[in-house]
Amino acid sequence: MTEEKCPQLVDYFVVAGLDPAGPWRPLDEDGKPVTDLAVIAKGLGEEVPEGFTCIERTLGGHSAELSAGLINNPHLFLCYRRGRDKPPILDLGVLYEGKEQLKQGWYVIETTPYSRSASLSTGGAPTAHRVFLTYRRALDSQGLHTLGVTDIALLLPSKGEVAPHTFCRVDKNLNTGMWGPALYVCYKRAVAKANALVYEASLISRYPEEDLEAFPLPESVPVFCLPMGVTVESWPLNTKYQLPVFSTFVLTSASGDKVYGAAIQFYESFPRELLSERQSVRLGLLSVVDRRPITNRSLQVKKSICVLSHWPFFTVFQKFLTFIYRYSISGPHVLPLEKHISSFMHNVPFPSPQRPRILVQLSPYDNLLLCQPVSSPLPLSGASFLKLLQNLGPENACTLLLAVLTEHKLLLHSLRPDVLTSVSEALVSMSFPLRWICPYIPLCPLQMADVLLAPMPFIVGVHSSYFDLYDPPTDVVCVDLDTNTIFQSEDKKPLSWRSLPRKHGKTLFNTLTNLHKTLEKICTPGQEEATLEFLLTDYDQIYRRQKQLELEIQEVFLRFMSCLLRGYRTFLLPITQAPSDTTTDCSSLFNLQGFLKSRDRTQQKFYSQLTKTQMFTQFIEECSFVSDRHACLEFFDECVQKVDVEKPEEVRLIDLDETHSGEHTVFIMPPEEPQEPDGSECPALYSYETFPTLKPELFDQPQDQLRVPAKGSAPDSPAPRRTKQEIKLAQKRAQKYSAVPDMWSKCLLGHCYGLWFIYLPTFVRAESAKVRALHTAYDVLKHMENRKVVLPDEVCYRILMQLCGQYGQPVLAVRVLLEMKKAGITPNTITYGYYNKAVLESKWPSTNQGGRLRWAKLRNVLLAVAQFRQPIKRRQKSGSVGSPAGVRDSAGRNKAVDENDNNVSSPSRGGLAGKLQQLLTPTRHRVSVRRAASVDDRRPGGGGGGSSLSVGSDLDLTDTPSPAYPLRRSWDANQEGAGLEVLMSSCSLCRSCNSLVYDEEIMAGWTSDDSNLNSSCPFCCASFVPFLNAEICDLGPISRPAATQRTAEPPRYLTPQTVSFSSHLPPHLTVRLSVPQGSSVGGAPQVTVAYLSPLVLRKELESLLENEGEAVLAQPQFLDSHSIIFWNLVWYFQRLGLPSNLLQLVRASPLVSQFTQSSAVRVRLLWDTLTPDTDQWPPLYILWRIHKTEPGVRISRVDRSVLRWVGMNEVHKAVTLFLDTLAKQPGSPRIQRSLYREFLFLTLAAMGKDHVAAFDKKYKAAYSRLSSTLGREELRKKRAQPPSPKAVDCRRSFHPPLEC
């Protein structure tokens, strides 16, 4: 089986910054921060100081006098100065002297530059009423990226003036006089940098250097790595070291796929030699007058390293990038940096079901863990709901949910780039299952800010510096994540979360409020600088609590959306006619008016806006057709069902994911360090002053990468795939039904039919009449409905719908949907999508009634007449209505018409003598017809009164419902005495009590665990693994008589040669192939495999198809490579009479290489063991047959007596006789079969299957009678108890042609 390349975890590694050799494109600089404030009294002749700017007008153009309300107005004005010669001012304030104390670190502007009082109150007022402006300044050693004041403004609220967006207003009135309007000061903060030059980021190096064919490296990646540009800065020598800043961004390709970027921005030294004199002066590295170098400043440049991937493993990428950065600033090292980068990119596979956990050892001290992302039904994203609630609060979070649902233009901005992406991702995730399809740029570089002028909804995140250069458009809702404010245009009605549906919106707000209080407790400020003691003791506990809180917040939004769209599936309109131009319109796929009428009248406006959005239209299309989000939508449907209760807020929708614990883990070791020829360590030669330019020759080329098996099934094939929700639901149903005897057998039966439908695509592909095969599958569905089979999921219907679309049968797909609804099953999102795909893309038959339709009607009339005349002809030919009809050969003998259909014709003998004579023929090498009742003959009045030799059920065959479908032949009736015969039996030996456990007892002992191979012994209650035995016999031209007594011969397989075949089941369940030594060409090989429960077998089959594809089921190697699955499928398909092509693989197997090649293979399913142990007491029915077939030998007294007592309804006397006979035998004879089984098989051999039901009643009555005399415990020790009701029901549900 060929394998495809594993999806690469990381596509590119990029280094972005300022290329020393490339052109430097300058960007607009940020405004210089405010460093000084002053208050001047123009009325007293004071002038604006040099370098200061006076604020003479308010934002609305009115006078900005600070003392307008004073009697003796000195005409005070506020002035400020920008610069970089001192630390910037951080905040402004107003001090009411005498009413409050001055805060620590704040300064008061008490005097003007001309030493006059700067009090804003009345000049003659007492000290207690003076008002002063205050400010707070940054420390000299404070970090360079501290927020500083960059702009100041005054406003008059009475004139309708409001603070501009991103401005902070000091809520203290500056005018404390008796008259005049209230005056307030507001200011804007931005990052206060040192002397800096800003340039556009460029690509320094990348790996790989060539573009990938599927995903070329976008040219804009460096700009996203450094959205604010590359800054060259001069720092004082005592400046605190700046830690690396982690940021993420999302790129959307032309096809709509998301590409996630993770970057680390850091500073490193920059050579002064690369700067011009003018640049050095601007950076403060040269004195302005004499151009003398200033040595007490350092030169730093910003650089970024980044990885691009199709999966948002942001935490993993952050650890990897941090390791690479730390590796570059430490050293020296033996290995170059490039070795670690290539090792991570080439050797770390994408997590898959085969390797769900990948532990990457980056170094002896650094490791990271990748877990399979598809384990969560929710879409994978880089969202952080903790940061969403922490930065927005409950009210604004609900308001933004309303804005997203109604598709507004949203502009998020912050001074923290990592917060922008996390909150933006959370915004588009909290409306799940609706998906945002409009422009979405979580971290937009300033050079690309023109997207804000787009005439469509968008969600864009920008750095707050954007507002230093541009004003936001008027129709955009601006969200400041740093100040938790939402700014909306005044000419529109402001958004309010109260516009959400009242009940669900209030529940959402209250729950978020409670979670926000919890969040404030566990996410305390300063936690990042926690002590080592804190990290060692409380970090794990707090991290686990944060993870749980993250899921709880996400669950709140999911519950709201589930309540919001509750019942939407009932308004979906399936396509039931030939498609037209408007078939795919949302109005044709969804009953919009019915949906709106089902909502409360007070919510009509909101729902009307919601249903008009592009998100809702796409959601309906995704629910109606095949989508890559089918697993997510199916999970959402399950959530909708859960919240359909009185108190949906108490229902848990998302569980804390701990599934990765204890799973298979792949360890990826770090690159191996080279050694000297003498075995000593190589010297450490690699150290870096700055992050290096990557050298291609130092990278390791990809060699043996970890791969995942190719998925052979077509992308549109649902056959091997069940969603996680379907698997969980099937497990819950199995657990529920395992405690109910009559439901457990139907559950097993449903999984058996599910196995066949999983195999159906392979079967249809191999058939020449594919349409007929599809109709056969449809008849199987109807037969399942008639038998009330409990289906574990919708896979049976889904696969048939998908095949209808594949082979152009839309009408049949509609019939399948109607059959599904008739069974009371509402199709989920996946099944519904495949149905609409089938009826939409297939060619519908013409509606014109042409000659073909008329001929079809005439054909149906003739067939109907022939069916009415057939019983008359049958009665005339056979002379007896109860005699089954068959096809006669030249000798006039009845023959089987269809082996898989279990049609059989018995000789025209009447009475018990004929039955006994036929049954006493040895069962091993008889070449007569298969002894099984026809499915068609089981219909009422269909000849069920004749001899019936099948003992697989205790039902009267005349009362058994039968399928109305023709089954595939596996045996040609005209080739009697030629070909291969496969004898199979599931009878297994319990090693604990040396008892034979039969098929229905094994089924009753299985559990609902789809990973448990054990069954429970009905006698000792011990767990054991049952086995399925198969013996392949060559029925080639036979010269010896057909009545050879092989049963009486001792076993010939005393020294078997054992050959093991590979299997993905547990190692102790190896397949044993036994071939007799020295046997002739006609020797019969035996195969023994584990007998799997249908639940276990389905899990194994789905795993096989997921790994190797559907084609493996049709390959000759299937039998040898996966023998356990193969023989179990053959067993179940034969038991249910379902058609398959599996028997054709037997002819190509090495098992039959010694036999005569023949195209005919048939299977006989036996109830008893294939190889009886001659050391044990021989079973009664074998003794009966030996005595009956030996001429002159009479039937044993025990057999005659047992049969007489059973016939006389005195079974308790037969049990007593048999126990007494055993007690009189010399020694202690060992019996492997229970008393019930001995008498049952003897009754079958002598009287036929029609007496099974009556025998069961008689035996139960005898057991009850004997229990009162011998005691139940004594009877149990002697294995005299009847089978359990669960076992009897399993035998009743599975009524296949088992032979004794």
TrEMBL record:
BP-aspect Gene Ontology terms: regulation of Rab protein signal transduction
GO cellular component, one term: cytoplasmic vesicle
UniProt-annotated stretches for the region Disordered: 873-969, 1274-1300
Matching InterPro entries: cDENN_dom (IPR001194), dDENN_dom (IPR005112), DENN_C (IPR043153), DENN_Domain_GEFs (IPR051696), MABP (IPR023341), PPR_rpt (IPR002885), TPR-like_helical_dom_sf (IPR011990), Tripartite_DENN (IPR037516)
Highest taxon of source: Eukaryota
Listed Low complexity bias regions: 948-960
Domain MABP, chain residue ranges per copy: 31-191
A GO molecular function held by the record: guanyl-nucleotide exchange factor activity
Each PPR repeat, start to end: 793-827
Domain UDENN positions: 183-632
Keyword rRNA processing appears in the UniProt entry: no
Short name of one Pfam family: DENN
This protein's UniProt keywords: Guanine-nucleotide releasing factor
Alphabetical list of PANTHER family matching this protein: DENN DOMAIN-CONTAINING PROTEIN 4 (PTHR12296), DENN DOMAIN-CONTAINING PROTEIN 4B (PTHR12296:SF18)
Protein name: DENN domain containing 4B
Species, as recorded: Lates calcarifer (Barramundi)
Lineage, highest ranks first: Eukaryota, Metazoa, Chordata, Craniata, Vertebrata
Gene designation: DENND4B
